[in-house]
Amino acid sequence: MARNRYAVLLVACLATFAINLDTNIINVALPALNRELGASTSQLQWIVDAYNLAFAALVLGAGSLGDRFGRRPALIIGLVGFAAASGLGALCETSGQLTAIRAVMGVFAALIFPTTLSIIANAFPDRGERARAIGIWGAVTGVAVAVGPVTGGLLLEHFWWGSVFLALVPFAVLTAALAIRLVPESRDPAAPGIDLPGVVAGSATIGLLVYTIIEAPHRGWDAPLTIAGFAVTAVLAAVFVLIERRAEHPMLDVSVFATRAFTAASLSVTVAFFALFGFIFLVTQYFQFMRGYGPLSTGVRILPVAGTIALGSAVGPMLVSRFGTRPIVMVGLALLGGSFAWIAGSPLDESYLLIVGQMVMMGLGLGLTQVPATDSILSVLPPAKAGVGSAINDATREAGGTLGVAVVGSVYASIFTSHLNDSSLAQLPAGLLAQATSSVGAALDVAQRTGGEPFVHAVQDSFLSAFHIGCIVGAAVCWAGALAASALPGRRRPRVADPEPATVSVPA
Questions:
Q1: How far is CA 208 from CA 21, 184, 213, in A?
Q2: pLDDT (0 to 100) of residue 507
Q3: Span 258-281, mean pLDDT?
Q4: What separation in angstroms does the CA of 24 have from each of 73, 199, 498?
Q5: pLDDT of the residue at 190
Q6: Does 11 have pLDDT greater than 70?
Q7: Of 16, 52, 224, 499, whose CB count within 10 A is highest?
Q8: Angle formed by the axes of helices 430-438 and 440-450, to 10°?
Q9: What does R_g of the chain's alpha carbons equal in angstroms?
Q10: In Å, what is the CA distance from 96 to each residue of 37, 48, 51, 166, 435?
Q11: Sign of the four-CA dihedral 98, 100, 104, 107
Q12: What is the crossing angle of helices 41-69 and 386-421, to 10°?
């Protein structure tokens, strides 16, 4: 029986690995996409965020689908669709096509990811064993963060940028085959149908918010369209809450957020992945454009943050058993904020050994945050609702990552454009200046062609200022999250619902 449980855990971890590998493998390819597809900073943000946005918008509904119709078929269909979309991604010729394919990949990832946690929750009913299994599942995220950039860099050293998508196809197909063989069927017999109004309202809210943030640097943060976008987002959010409160079977039971511990745990996961995704989006461009490292060298240099995420994820549950959830998550988020603050004070030619220290602090902070907070989210829902609980956890992760790229990337783009317009490049013709402000890669190309060393220094100074301000924003968000995490439980975690009958399991 234990062997069967760990076989299920293996498949869940492999599926999780595929999802997180795609999330991180794309980041090291951003400079290549900038050069070969002519993608601007906002288009790079969309290439990253289209996946995260589709994932975050649909994962709650997808979790309900898995609960009702079976987690095993949901996992298999998601993996096969993910493999097909990845293959198509390698054939794209424009940034718009790639953005669309990334969104399709996000749809299938939304079907996969909540299934992984829900089958773990049902395979490990004992809370202690479940916490250890979730710790392993969380450590896999750290491994994927490590392997993604290195794998992407290795592929880009020898092949074209599409290889980073093509490489995902055999891995996803193999995992689907193992799921067919090893994963037993499980479902919630009382699961309701899809809450279509809730899905539409929730997707529109998240989508408009991200769209407004990403486009704000070009329109202006105080432009009428930007202000209107934020206002309409607030209205849509209120409509979503109203729909969910009145629905007989809501996609998201908003009443669970009345429990402070649940809300604090969800917010902690959101902030942690806000920090990680925002950092990776910027640091890959810093290493390749500012330090001149190749894709593989960049991937290798990101390993410290990845390895320490895995370490923190493994150690976190042990520390929680001794000290409780609250202090561990608060320390984790404080470490994340501290790493951003440290980066914000670093010069352009910072010693790599010090950069390693910054990444170690960041990785430990994220590892100490994600597993205890995830276990806290799952612990307040009964096992039969594991799909919904895991979907809420996944939605907070992806929403955090999406907002991290959108917010940190947009702050960076705003500051970068402003500094370039005030630098020596301002004397360039309007067309060349507009090209330079579209992305750091384009700015360096224009500077090298037109002004030589002085213009290159102007671009580097503009990038560094934008990078530092983006990191200050990241630090502020993390420290605010640490304060909010004070609502988490200590040694004992409350439940918002009484235990329900176990999920019906049908042999495969």
A1: 27, 39, 9
A2: 32
A3: 84
A4: 26, 27, 38
A5: 61
A6: yes
A7: 52
A8: 140
A9: 22
A10: 10, 12, 13, 18, 18
A11: positive
A12: 170
Nearest 5 degrees, angle CA 417-CA 418-CA 423?
95
Looking at residue 336, what is its pLDDT? 93
With cut-offs at 50, 70 and 90, classify the pLDDT of residue 505.
Answer: very low
Maximal CA-CA distance, the chain: 72
Q: Any long-range contacts for 418-421 (C-beta under 8 Å, 24+ apart)?
A: 419/461, 419/462, 419/465, 419/466, 420/458, 420/459, 420/462
Q: Tell which residue, 54, 161, 37, has the closest CA to residue 102.
A: 54
What letter represents residue 424's amino acid? S
Residue 82 has pLDDT above 70, yes or no: yes
Split at pLDDT 50, 70, 90, the class of 79 is very high
pTM of the model: 0.74
Q: State the burial class of residue 351 (Cβ atoms within 10 Å of its Cβ: 0-12, 13-18, 19+).
A: exposed
d(CA 394, CA 55): 9
Please give the pLDDT value at position 81: 93
Question: Percentage of the chain with pLDDT > 70?
Answer: 88
pLDDT at residue 236 in the model:
92
CB atoms within 10 A of CB 37: 19
Judging by beta carbons within 10 Å of its beta carbon (0-12, 13-18, 19+), is residue 408 exposed, middle or buried?
buried
Residue-wise DSSP of 183-220: PPEEE-TT-----HHHHHHHHHHHHHHHHHHHHHHHH-
Q: Tokens 């895995």 — which residue?
A: 310
pLDDT in the model for residue 389: 61
Q: Is the model's pLDDT at 92 over the cut of 70?
A: yes
Structure tokens at 198: 């809730």
- Nearest to 205, CA basis, from 233, 244, 241, 230: 233
pLDDT tens by residue, 150-162: 888 888 888 888 8
For residues 261 and 494, what is the distance between their CA atoms, to the nearest angstrom?
Answer: 8
More confident residue, 430 or 175: 175
The Cα–Cα gap between 82 and 85 comes to: 5
- Which are the contacts of 206, defined by CB distance < 8 A and separation ≥ 6? 53, 56, 57, 399, 402
pLDDT tens for residues 215-241?
787 777 888 998 999 999 999 989 988
pLDDT of residue 3: 52
What SS3 string covers 52-81?
HHHHHHHHHHHHHHHHHHCHHHHHHHHHHH
List the beta bridge partners of residue 187: 504
- Other Cβ atoms within 10 Å of 241 Cβ, number: 18
Rounded to a whole number of angstroms, the distance between the first and last alpha carbons of the chain is 15
CA distances from 365 to 106, 137, 252, 335, 359 (A): 26, 17, 29, 5, 10
Strands (E), 183-316: 185-187
Q: What is the Cα–Cα distance from 89 to 387, expressed in whole angstroms?
A: 29
* 32 in Cβ contact with 295 (< 8 Å): yes
